[in-house]
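Dear Dr. K.,

Following up on our conversation at the group meeting, I've run the structure prediction for Malate dehydrogenase from Blattamonas nauphoetae. I'm pasting the input sequence below exactly as I used it, so you can double-check it against your construct before we proceed with anything downstream. Let me know if the numbering doesn't match what you have in your notebook.
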Amino acid sequence: MTSYRIPFDVLENFSRDVLIKIGVEPQHAAVVADILTESDRRGHETHGIGRLKPIYYDRVKKGILETAVKYDIVKETSTTAVIDAHNSLGHPISKIAMQMAIDKAKQHGLGMVVCRNSTHYGIAGYYTSMAAAQGCVGMCGTNARPSIPPTGAVENMLGTNPLAFAFPTDEDFDFNLDCATSIAQRGRIEQYVRENRPVPAGWVIDDKGQPCSDAQQVLTGLTKGTHALLPLGGAGEELGGYKGYGYATVVEVLSASLSQANFLRALYGTKPDGSAGPIELGHFFFAANVEAFTTLEEFKKSAGDIMRELRTAKKAHPEDRIYVAGEKECEAYHEQIKLGGVIIEPANQKAIDAMRAEQGLTQYVFPWDAKQDVPITMTEEKPNLKVCKYPEGAVQNMCLDKSMYVGDGCYHACSCHVRK
Ligand SMILES: NC(=O)c1ccc[n+]([C@@H]2O[C@H](COP(=O)([O-])OP(=O)(O)OC[C@H]3O[C@@H](n4cnc5c(N)ncnc54)[C@H](O)[C@@H]3O)[C@@H](O)[C@H]2O)c1
Ligand SMILES: O=C(O)C[C@H](O)C(=O)O
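The predicted structure tokens came back this morning:
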């Protein structure tokens, strides 16, 4: 089966409309759809639209995730707040919580807001980006279903617990370090299952401490507790696995102990009878107003100077490239915008088809609905540039390579095909 590139606005509108159909308020559905699509725009496809189903859609359908976004502020000071999210969708609550932290930082220098009884919030870096865009240093993290074993153990206990930091710079992107505290996160294993690829050595151990390369076995084993995703640094102490384990523990404590949220084994999401139950998590969001320390201009210049000096490091091979955190996401964003959307693989096409059929969203037509290839018309040809026009009724842009999507045609230096 073929993968197709789908424009971001189509995916975002589809995700929003699916969520509205299953009972989510339009303004909250729009936030979830934006954050899922933003993950794809940044190249974090493991946490993008591909997770609408099985995670959010299926959990709402099973009645283990609330569609109404309700929350209470249970404790508040000028610089802190504790939110109870009552098993609501994690993305809208997290956006509200990070904005509260930023507002407090803007007024008092620092702000920290924690949530309990919230649910999976997607990419941590979305929320730290909000802080950087508003002149703050942002930090956030969340706990998650058990995945990481403590160093020396084989039982998965800690979530893949992402920890993200962002701040503005005078470069054309904000620094944003946004990653799990495990070597690979669950979304990556799901991706390896979809692509039928073996899991690389060093990512996983089973309950005998042995490696396992079968992605499906790992995914099932994570839920059963027979497999674990190793912390940053890997197994044992030799390569510093205890550092990743330590950072995952910091995230667990900041997510759970300040807000009095659930932690570790309580996040398996299984009821005593073995059926799926809610996974109510904790998150923390922190913002520091740069202007409380120095001018924003001085901060950005200094941070940018650090980025630029890092890039001057002597390289092992001239062709190697030195990146700083946030740079790849910025490039992916521009590249994907230029290419006109995100590649949707066959497994994700099936999930989209199932949601479309169940919710009667027949107004959405995707390229894989097309029955036959039809020729495209070249309207202009220059060296390395063809301007082509799609025939009437052609379904979406299906150019899968470096092309510029322009309405009903594309500019490209390759051959692409269109289906009807
Ligand atoms: N909600 C959850 O429970 C949860 C759990 C785990 C991960 N996640 C999310 O999944 C996403 C992916 O996580 P991941 O652990 O796979 O991330 P990853 O391993 O892809 O690392 C991404 C980070 O590393 C930086 N980076 C990549 N290559 C670099 C290089 N060569 N030099 C310098 N920096 C570089 C990126 O800019 C980015 O900040 C994140 O958005 C994370 O928040 C969410
Ligand atoms: O899937 C989870 O529970 C957490 C996170 O999104 C991950 O991919 O590891």
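Two things stood out to me. The first helix runs from residue 8 to 21. The pocket of (2S)-2-hydroxybutanedioic acid (ligand 2) is lined by residues 120, 144-145, 147, 159-160, 185-187 (CB under 6 Å).

Best regards,
J.T.
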